[in-house]
Amino acid sequence: MPTLRLFNTLGRQLQDFVPLVPGKVGFYGCGPTVYDYAHLGNMRPYVLHDILVRSLRYLGYEVTHVMNITDVGHLSGDSDLGEDKMLKRAEERGKSVYEIAEFYTAAFFRDTERLGVARPSVVCKATEHVADMIALIKRIEAKGYTYSAGGNLYFDVTKFPSYGELALLKLDELKAGARVEVDPNKRNPADFALWFTKSKFGNQAMVWDSPWGRGYPGWHIECSAMSMRYLGEQFDIHAGGVDHIPIHHTNEIAQSEAATGKKWVNYWVHNEFLNFGKLKMAKSSGEFLTLQSLVDKGYDPLDYRYFLLGAHYRSQLAFSWESLDSARSARRSLLDRVLALAEKGHAAPIASIGPAARARLESFVAAMAEDLATPRALAELWGALRDPELPAPEALALALEMDGILGLGLAGARRAEAAAVDPELAAWIEGLVAERAAAKKAKDFARADAIRAELAAKGVVLADGAGGTAWKLA
Ligand code: AMP
Ligand code: ZN
Predict the structure, then answer these.
(1) Is the shortest distance between the CB of 246 and ligand 1 below 6 Å?
(2) Which pLDDT score is estimated for 180?
(3) DSSP per residue, 346-389
(4) Residue 336's pLDDT is what?
(5) How far apart are CA 474 and CA 471, in angstroms?
(6) Bridge partners of 153?
(7) Which atom of ligand 1 is closest in space to residue 42's alpha carbon?
(8) Mean pLDDT calculated for residue range 304-308
(9) How far is the CA of 444 from the centre of ligand 1 (A)?
(10) What are phi and psi of 227, to 5 degrees?
(11) Predicted confidence (pLDDT) at residue 320 exceeds the cutoff of 80
């Protein structure tokens, strides 16, 4: 197996991946803030995390993948400004924060599941880990990195000399106050809250007792506390969107390393943004597209996954209906090719494929191992399916093997083929469909409707189109 190379934001270079413990990987990906539906842009990191985890496992690593659910502490500005996103939404809807969190967490997992994203090994909610956060803040405080002001406890970034290394920030430039709005409590503009005791909100459901008074945690501390709880004080990979580099991840590193005195995370992986027109697609910028809105328009969620994989994760990607349509037709022809191969027989056992097929598989794995180069990997998949020299069972075996990482539902297509409709049933359906067409032509709509109902009762769904009526089994 090739060595995985990852572009590490920390240091901005491609590096060979070397885990802390041979054969094992601790991976933390920042999860959603569950105050609204995830938009299409939000889904980009989770598909990337899934691809990363699948690739690592393919390469033989045992991966512990941890994802948090932010259900408290994320203010509308990443730098401690504005209102708590969760509380604001709860107040608007007249619901409890927990109801809002539960509703949107379920919606989030419905979407990720439809996108073929495997559940992380651990999913942890911020509200269930406040004790861990308090314990971590105590350690940071004991080491002298904090100060209290205006009822809140802050992290003093000037006490942490390498502050801003991840984002290539320079502290003296930050002091000019250009980056963040000035909170009068802060000694330095980049300082950030570890604990708020002066709640701006009336809702008492979201406060906890702490050594600094009754209040609630800052957003950044949740990721430090929960990742350490499940992965230890040092772990291998941390991921999130590029917007997290200058504040959220920069602050996570400062407070974690202040607490432990050790390097916290070795590799930082950040996905670029999905753009919608010229705008960054953001929950706050009004209308945004959800996965469900694509499904409502007739797309398969995996068409969107194909669209995402068509770009490297470190490139910005522009959303357009035209590109989504191309992704859909590309994925459909993939499925058609896989079905056509499956008609010719079973897939060859992957261990027994010949040298030509093996070379193709190796190029595919090499593409994935080179910083998850999904566009190249897709090209390798296409190459395998188009290669006239490959015996059908080997081409099929390759497609299924590659799809184990890409997750485009190709194995599902094969299963659908295996469960092909019994020819006798098909003949009966075709007969009724033809009879219905004749009834419609003769304007006997009662008979036409009765036939549709009879078919529906047997689980047959009809779709009338310009070229006639298509049917499928529901
Ligand atoms: P949130 O639920 O708002 O905390 O965001 C969840 C994840 O989506 C974070 O990792 C963000 O960095 C990422 N994200 C937000 N907007 C976009 C976008 N337009 N394109 C790609 N990733 C995004
Ligand atoms: Zn985070």
Answers:
(1) no
(2) 52
(3) PPPPGGG--HHHHHHHHHHHHHHHBT--HHHHHHHHHHHHH-TT
(4) 92
(5) 9
(6) 148, 195
(7) 8
(8) 98
(9) 54
(10) -65, -40
(11) yes
Closest residue CA from atom 18 of ligand 1: 41
Three-state SS for 75? strand
Q: Within a 10 A sphere around the Cβ of 313, how many other Cβ atoms?
A: 24
Atom of ligand 1 nearest to the CA of 243: 12
**Residue located nearest, by CA, to atom 19 of ligand 1:** 41
How far apart, in Å, are the Cα atoms of 373 and each of 12, 310, 370?
17, 9, 6
Q: How far is the CA of 30 from the centre of ligand 2 (A)?
A: 4
Cβ of 29 below 6 Å from ligand 1: no
Amino acid letter, residue 291? L
pLDDT per position as a tens digit, 464-474? 877 678 777 77
- For atom 8 of ligand 1, the residue with the nearest CA is 42
pLDDT in tens, 67-86: 999 988 787 777 777 778 88
| Ligand 2 mean position, distance from CA 135 (Å) | 18
Question: Rounded to whole angstroms, how far apart are CA atoms 435 and 441?
Answer: 10
Per-residue pLDDT tens digits for 157-188:
999 999 999 999 876 666 544 445 667 889 99
Cα–ligand 1 centroid distance for 308 (angstroms):
14
Ligand 2 centroid – CA 219 distance (Å): 8
Q: What is the DSSP string of 306-330?
A: HHHHTS-TTS-EEE-HHHHHHHHHH
- In a 3-state reduction of DSSP, which class is residue 44? helix
Q: What are phi and psi of 163, to 5 degrees?
A: -55, 135
| pLDDT confidence tier of residue 200, bands split at 50, 70 and 90 | low
Question: What does the pLDDT look like over 253-303, one tens digit per residue?
Answer: 999 999 999 999 999 999 999 998 765 555 555 457 999 999 998 999 999
Instruction: Read off φ and ψ for residue 65, nearest 5 degrees.
Output: -105, 120
Mean pLDDT of the 379-388 span: 97
Q: What is the pTM of this model?
A: 0.86
